Amino acid sequence: MMLAAAILIPMATAVLCLMLRRRAAVARLVSLAGAVALLIASVLLLVTVLQGGPVAAQMGGWPAPFGITLVADLLSAAMVLITGIVAVAVAVYGLADVTRNEERRGHHTLTQALLAGVCGAFLTGDMFNLYVWFEVMLIASFGLLVIGGGKAQIDGAVKYVGLNLIATLAFLTGVGLLYGATGTLNMADLHGIVPGRQDEVAILGAAALLLFAFGAKAAMFPVFFWLPAAYHTPSVTTSALFAALLTKVGVYALLRVFTLVFDAGHPSIQAVLLVGACLTMAVGVLGAAAQNGIRRILSFHIISQIGYMVVGLAIYTPLAIVGGIFYLFHHIVVKANLFLIGGLIARRTGSEDLDRIGGLWAARPWLGVLFLIPALSLAGIPPLSGFWAKLLIVQASLEAELYIVAAVALVVGLLTIFSMSKIWLEAFWKEAPAGTPAATGTVPALGAAATAALLTPALALAAITVVIGLMPGPFFDAAQVAADHLVTPDAYVRAVLGGASP
Amino acid sequence: MELILAALVGLLVAAGAYLMMSGYLVRFLFGLVLLSNAANLAIFAAGRLTYAAPPLIPEGALAPGGPVGNALPQALILTAIVIGFGLFAFALALSFRAYNALGTAEMNAMRHAEPVPAPTPTAAAETERPA
């Protein structure tokens, strides 16, 4: 029952944290223990899938396609594993970052509920159930956004809630239409029905609605406005969790549904995906150039990086999908780390506004090195993980003779270096501006325990980035197998339907 | 019957979209309610409208006797209504809080998270210069 464990552990932890909300010190440790348990469960799940191929379980004893199926192929299992890694990293960081006030208002409960929703979305094999997990994730993220209670948080949350609810309704309508046209919502079952009927109005309409909904969740152009409005407002811990996981669930849903159910190679769908992905890359990176707060710059870079992942799906060759999946894994680690380090910079200088900080290279050179690892990886400098991810995408677009896509990917990479060097120049090399806390030395000092809690997750994530960069072989092989599972989902379908269906 | 429902769904979506684009938080919420009802009606119509018996299985039997209505769309809609109600309640509370904290329900006036950048010195000088 490894499959259900990845959902049940965070749910049970959420309930425990809710009961312990008056005893913050205990709840904090319970939340951390829950995250560690999730990580262990996800490792076991990954080992199971690596050894025996996709595994499925029918909830409530109803056989597929009538009941709800949980299923893990390599992509799902790897996504759950990386969720576990991020969960532990932010739980440790949160020990020194989350305020007592936020803890009392349910930070731990909501975080664990969010993790349950994310894992559920990765593991479900049913379209309507995917909708339900999206909602679990969404309502938990609403809560996490507003528990700080500041004006900026409320303001950001209004935009975040409004735009996400529209996407949710599109998702729901798309699921309804798909059911009306096919009579089933089980993804493996749909795989046997939809492919030959893609040009029917109802099915193409459902595909369009789902594309809009997942695109909005993944923050694709032109429906990304909720992200830069909200991601820099909550605590750093919450920001990092959102940045690592939420948009990536949208990308995962695109990858899953537009390979297993619909065919992303359909001319209309592929055109929308390609144009959308290229504009996402370009608009995200240009938006970042105009920003001056560390987390606001990083938020816009999430959008631009989402473009790279979606372009992997849009090119729709095996190599491109491998590239997209590799990018997905690398990006979650790097982006979570950049947000965590951005928070560290703000702790050391008293602000995350680049105009009000500086002089960190002289004061804390090691923090600079730590920042450079994920920053250069994000930009795609060898030998870090981002280089291999970008290389795969560019190579795949050249092989598919999509030269414009390759050019956009390369230019956006250059502009990413520009943005990262802007943070570097302003925060590290420039002298701290006169009169700011960084210049007058009035930044509140951090205790040894707090420093350890803030630094350890950043160091661990940086180590993962370096390891992927220096030894991309095993990760590339894993991405290859995951892509094979997506492109030829025979084993997936057999695991769900038990070989009875064609 | 399907045609009437389809037209109604279209009408609701159009009205909802119109309300949402007004840029006023309360109207946005009303638009959201209309859209959410449109989605539920669409699922209902997609499950086929038939004159059939309720899907009840007589005692002792394993399958219903005659043709029965499809129960699944109704189950989907019930779930969607419950989720939609919860989300709407949250959105309503958040809007009220936003109105209290920010002093406005005009979306374009809510600029706390993304402040309008202060005019640069050159831009300020240009506006001061007499025409």
TrEMBL record, chain A:
Lineage top rank: taxon: Bacteria
Membrane topology, record value: Multi-pass membrane protein
Primary subcellular site in the record, as a coarse category: membrane
GO BP terms in the entry: ATP synthesis coupled electron transport
A GO cellular component annotation in the UniProt record: plasma membrane
Location of the protein in the cell: Cell membrane; Membrane
Ranges annotated as spanning the membrane: 6-22, 29-50, 70-96, 130-148, 160-181, 201-227, 239-262, 268-294, 306-329, 366-389, 401-425, 445-470
Residue ranges of every copy of the NADH:quinone oxidoreductase/Mrp antiporter transmembrane domain listed in the record: 125-415
Keywords attached to this entry: Cell membrane, Membrane, Transmembrane, Transmembrane helix
Entry's Gene Ontology molecular function annotations: NADH dehydrogenase (ubiquinone) activity
Family, similarity comment: Belongs to the CPA3 antiporters (TC 2.A.63) subunit D family.
UniProt protein name: Multicomponent Na+:H+ antiporter subunit D
Annotated organism of origin: Roseospira goensis
From TrEMBL, chain B:
GO cellular component, one term: plasma membrane
Keywords: Cell membrane, Membrane, Transmembrane, Transmembrane helix
Location(s) in or outside the cell: Cell membrane
Membrane topology annotation: Multi-pass membrane protein
Transmembrane region(s): 6-25, 32-51, 71-94
Principal subcellular localization: membrane
Family the UniProt entry places it in: Belongs to the CPA3 antiporters (TC 2.A.63) subunit C family.
Protein name: Multicomponent Na+:H+ antiporter subunit C
